[in-house]
Structures are given as C-alpha cells and as structure tokens.
Amino acid sequence: MRFLLDLNQQINSLVWGPPMMIFLMGTGVLLTIFTRGIQARKLAFALREVLGKLFSKAAGEGEVTPFQAVATALASTVGVGNIAGVSTAIVLGGPGALFWLWVSGLLGMCTKFAEIAVALYYRQRDPSGQMRGGAMYVLTEGLRLRWLGQVFAFLTAAAAFGIGNMVQANSVAEAAKASLAVPAPVSGAILVVLAGLVVLGGIRRIAEVTQYLVPFMCLLYLTGAVVVLVRFAGEIPAVIALVLESAFEGHAAAGGFAGATVMMAIRYGIARGLFSNEAGLGSAPIVHASAVTDHPIRQACYGIFEVFIDTMVVCLITGFVILSTGVWQSGDTGAALAAKAFAVGLPGEWGHYIVTSGMILFAFSSIIGWCYYGETGATFLFGPRAALPYRLAWLVFVWLGETGTLHVVWDIADTLNGLMAIPNLVAVLGSLPLLGRLIRDFFEEGASNGWPETKKITKV
Q1: How far apart are CA 94 and CA 251, in angstroms?
Q2: Strand locations in 13-153 (E)
Q3: Number of CB atoms found within 10 A of residue 340's CB
Q4: pTM score > 0.70 for this model?
Q5: Helix, coil or strand: residue 313
Q6: pLDDT tens-digit profile of 3-14?
Q7: Which H helix or E strand runs over 167?
Q8: CA 154, CA 159: separation in Å to the nearest integer?
C-alpha cells in the first residue's frame, strides 16, 4: 500500500506540476493563435447568445436547453476552488498569483470553446436514446482511438467520485459543523437526500435544478463580494498595482511564506485557475453535448461564457476581496482566509453567512453536476444499464465523503482528474482541421442562424 501511495504522489506531482501546466497552457496558446483569439473576438457574441436567450427555445437535437447545459457545467466548475482555491493561491504564490490565474482563464476560454465544439460534432444517442458526448466519443469516432476513449471514460467515471463528490461533500460537512454546529452525520443525511432527489432523475432533472441554483448562488456570493469592494474601493488601485507588480517580481504573504517568487506566483495562479475552470480536462463538454442546438460552434460559445464567469468574474472578485481587506497577510489560508475577508468587509455576521452559504451551495452544485460526468463515462464503458447503479453508488460516496476522512481516495481521484487532460487534449489537437471548418462555416459562411439540413453535421 505504501508503494502505491508513493507512486500516486509521484504521478500527482507530474499531473499537477509544471509539465502538465505547460501542456495545458501551451494548448491554450496554440488554440488562441489557431482561432485568432476567438475568446476575445467573439466574447460579445457569446454574452449575447447566453444572456439574450435565457428563455428562448433552441432549435435542433438534444436533451436540455443551451442555458441548462451551461448552468450544469458552471454547477460543476464553480465550486470550492473559487473560494478556498483562490485563497490558497494568494497565500502560496503571493498576490501575483491572481494575475496568472486570470491568464489561465483567458486561455482556458479558448480551450473550452474548442473542446465543446468537437464534442458536439461527434455526439450521438446511446442505445437508451440519451444524447451523449465528450472526448471519449471524439477519440472513438473521430480519431479511431477507441482504447484511448475508454481510458478517458474510465478516468472520468473514477475521478468523479473524488473531485466532484467526496471532496465537495466533506466541504459541506466542515462548513455546516463550523458555522451551524450541525454534526456530520446529520448534514450527511440531508445532503444524500437532496442529492438523491436530483441525480436519480438524470440529466434533465439536474439541468432543471442547476438553471435556478447556479444563478442564485452566484448572485448571492457576488452581491456580498461587491458590497465589500464598494466599502474598500479606495484600496482597489493599490491592489491592482500590487497584483501586477507581484506577478513579475514576486511578493510573499506574511508568516512562513517569505520566498514567494515569480515562479511560485505563476505555478499556483495557473494551477488554481485550471483546477477551478477545468478547461482542458474534458469534463464540461460532456454536459454541453446534451444541449439542444443547431450548430456545435453556437454551443461552444457557451463555453467561453462559462470560463468567463468562473475565473474572470468569481475567482477574480474573490481575490480582490481578500487583498483589498488586507487579510491575506493574516497567516490564514483556504476557506478560513476568505471567511475572514468577508467578515472584515461586511457588517455583523453577514460575511460569515455569505462564505458559509457559498461553500455549501457551490459544493452541492458540483456534486449534482459531476454525477452526470461520471455516469457518462460509465455508460460509455458498460452501456446504459450502468447509469442507475452509478447514481446509487454516487450517493453512497456522498455519505462517505461527508462523514469520513478518506484522504487516500481523494489523492488518487485528484491524480485521475488531472490525467483526464491527456486524452482530452489529444482529442482536441487531433481535431484542429475540423474545428477550423466548423468556425468558418458558422461565422464566415452565414450559418449563424442555423444550418440547412444538407449541411447539418451534428451526428445523432
């Protein structure tokens, strides 16, 4: 067992270390050049497409509305990493980590756009009639690498139990116990029941819940954060200067972190940004592939919006709250640091409640969203009959994560989660010619209002 744990630690250091970050960021740079900066050129289009059609009925094949798909994806990405992850990045990498987190988000917008586009092209209905898609289908149908598609499906199904389930459930337990004095078994039972009511209904029920839950939780958290920033508006210019200076010169937090360098700022900023928005890991395309749409590029623009909200808005504002209130030098880290920042910035107990509710809602949304990711990996490997057993097993692991301390499982799941990036990026990079054709067809050949039936290439 000790040998396996040591081996996992070595693999994890590579998976979430500089080589993988270079691979992910390099892919983002390549895709940005290939698409001529589509995340910037078409950001306004993406915002209009999402916000201007919240209640419109989309045309085409699929299971859920385009907004429900992006809400479910955001439910999975806007999680504990947006609070605890940003705090940790600032403590370990200094304020400059926030700049590099922003850079990872800028490139991640393009990566997620590309992976969603190719996933939509190769999506198909499984034997039960459910629309499915993701890197496993791209690798199998597009690149004829079924074995690698099976590897990706296994990694997704297995990693989901840790990164999207037990880690999130344990965060709920800690927040409920510390803030509300609710014992873990009680909060665990409540969480299992609530999660079960959602995930046992499949993607349609998950999407129906997330389309309301995600906007509510984001607005609640961001409203509190904006109030803090308004109160500390005079500190914002100095915060911006500090972030930019630290990004290129290095600046450590107080305490045991004297020695934070530019490399540490880059490492922790990029790592926490990628952990938060999951761009390049191949998770979000799984749910986007179920959306009703008439063109892969149209739904891919929702991916631009997704990373924009997750990293460029939620993560960035969290970082500004921590820095503007001055608590980043307190010696605290993780969720405790964010809680202290909101407690300083908001009167009474409001700051405390904002962080606690944010942690619980963000974690719960990740639990229900990631269930569909893992289920899709399982059904790709074993067929539709695996869906219900997977959902039931999911609820068992929610309970274990809420009431236990299975750090070994979490560490292994974290490694598996990072390994998802390798087959996913193979799928994306191997589909560059297809991506170019899709972009030209949609934006340059007048197909933005839907394809004629003879040109429609979304496979079903």
Answers
A1: 5
A2: 124-125, 131-132
A3: 21
A4: yes
A5: helix
A6: 666 776 777 777
A7: helix 167-180
A8: 8
pLDDT in tens, 359-393: 888 889 889 999 999 999 999 999 999 999 999 99
Look up the CATH architecture of domain 14-442. Orthogonal Bundle (1.10)
- How do residues 91-134 score in pLDDT, each as one tens digit? 888 888 899 999 999 999 999 999 999 999 999 998 888 899 99
Question: CA 71 to CA 392: how far, in whole Å?
Answer: 23
Q: Which residue has the higher pLDDT, 6 or 170?
A: 170
> Strands, E, within 251-351: which ranges?
none
Check if the beta carbon of residue 277 is closer than 8 Å to that of residue 91. no
Report pLDDT for 1. 57
- The 10 Å Cβ neighbour count of residue 433 is 8
Q: 411: exposed, middle or buried (C-beta count within 10 Å: 0-12, 13-18, 19+)? A: middle
Amino acid (one-letter) located at 223: T
Q: Which amino acid is at 313?
A: V
Q: Residue ranges of the domains in the chain?
A: 14-442
Q: How many angstroms separate the CA atoms of 97 and 95, rounded?
A: 5
**What is the model's pLDDT at position 256?**
44
**Percentage helix, strand, coil, to 5, in the chain?**
75, 0, 20
Q: What is the DSSP letter of 169?
A: H
Tell me the residue type at 242: L
345/162 Cα distance (integer angstroms): 33
